[in-house]
Amino acid sequence: MHIIINENDALFYSGLTHLLNDIFCHQGYTPCYSREINKSTVETADIIIQSLRPGEAFLCYPALYYRKPSLMIGLVDDNDRADHYPLPLCANDRIIISRKAGTENIRRTLKQAWEKLQTDAEKTRKPHCYGCKHRTMTSQQKRVAASFIEGCSVRHIAGKLALNSKSVFAHKHSLMRKFQLKNDHQLMMFLQIQRVKQSIIKHVGE
Questions:
Q1: The CA-based dihedral angle spanning residues 100, 102, 106, 109, taken in that order and rounded to the nearest 10 degrees
Q2: Lowest-confidence segment of 9-18, 33-42, 49-58 by average pLDDT
Q3: I need a surface site. Which of 2, 57, 82, 124 has the fewest CB within 10 A?
C-alpha cells in the first residue's frame, strides 16, 4: 500500500504514520510512504493526504490528473469546510479532516472512506480537466499580490501599478473572496505559499 503524506509538521506526520499503520497493518496491508505529490508518486498512490492551508483547496495540482482510484484526504487547521464549494475536478472527492479532530474520529473517517473506495473503485472515472472549477488569479491580481508579498503599502502599490487605492483594495478583497480567505494573515500565508510554488513570483517587479 502506497500512501503519500504531504505534511511538513514532523510530529503530525509521525502521528499519522502510526495511526495509518495501526489501521491498515491489521487489515493485512504493508504501508510505504512518500512525502511529495508528483506524477510518479501519484500514479501508484492508494491514499493521498495533503496539508491544505487556507485557499489551497481551490488550486490546480496538475499531478493529481494522474491519480488512479485512490483515497484523498485534505488536512485543514480549523473547521472550515472547503468542500462546500466547487473544487478542482481531480480533487472533488477529497475528504476534509480538521487537525483538531480527535484520533478516534480520524480513524473512523479513514476506515469508512477506505471501505467505500473499495466498493466504488470500479465506478471511479479518471480525472479530467474539461470544465474544471479550480480558481486562478487574474494578471492584475497577481501583480497586486506580488507587491503585497514585497511588503508594499496600498499607496505604494497604487502608484507602482498606476491604479487608485480603491482599485488596489478591490483586487485584494476579490482575491480573498475567491479563495475564501478570512483575514490578512490568511491572505499573506496563502500568497507566500504561492510564491514558493512559483505561481506568482515571475510577476514580482513587473
A1: -100
A2: 49-58
A3: 124
Instruction: Report yes or no on 132 lying in a domain.
Output: no
Phi, psi (degrees; rounded to nearest 5) at 130: -65, 125
Q: Do residues 107 and 190 share a domain?
A: no
Domain enclosing residue 28, as ranges? 2-123
- The closest of 61, 58, 127 to 86, measured between CA atoms, is 58
Q: Which residue has the higher pLDDT, 158 or 84?
A: 158
What CATH number corresponds to the domain at position 147?
A: 1.10.10
Write the pLDDT tens digit of every residue in 165-206. 999 999 999 989 888 888 988 898 888 877 766 544 344 444
Question: Could you give the CA distance from residue 193 to residue 186 in angstroms, rounded to a whole number?
Answer: 11
- In sequence order, what are the residues at sequence separation of 6 or more whose Cβ sits closer than 8 angstroms to the Cβ of residue 111? 23
Is residue 180 located within the same domain as residue 115?
no
Check residue 151 and give its pLDDT: 85
Prediction pTM value: 0.79
Is the same domain home to 154 and 68?
Answer: no
CA distance 10 to 15: 9
